Amino acid sequence: MTDEIIRPEPSPKPGRHAAGNAGSILAASGATLLAFTKLGSGMAVTVWAISKLFGFPDVILYVLLAAGVFPVIWATVWTAGRAWHVEQRLEAGLDVDTPVFKALHYWKRG
Questions:
Q1: How many angstroms from the chain centroid is the CA of residue 31?
Q2: Contact, 60 vs 51, CB < 8 A?
Q3: pLDDT tens-digit series, residues 6-33
Q4: End-to-end CA distance of the chain, in Å?
Q5: How many CB atoms lie within 10 A of CB 75?
């Protein structure tokens, strides 16, 4: 029995990971829309279930839904910045780095 060493393929040259900015925009916007829809629906279902479980009136349901919009928007904005950051790193031929969980970290210039 021969043991074969599996070597990873060399990474593509910089600029070959996506179809330029158009591919980066599509990939980042897809990740952002996915995060927005999944987080938004998850928040709505959770708030609805909790309010029905405890028998809250509809007014409290609407207040909780309105309050739940803010974490969803924050997470969507962060996801958009992170996705764009990752796409730019891949385009430059770099590896993906460790995420930084600060609200506007990826939106800073420089």
A1: 5
A2: yes
A3: 787 776 666 555 567 888 899 999 999 9
A4: 54
A5: 17
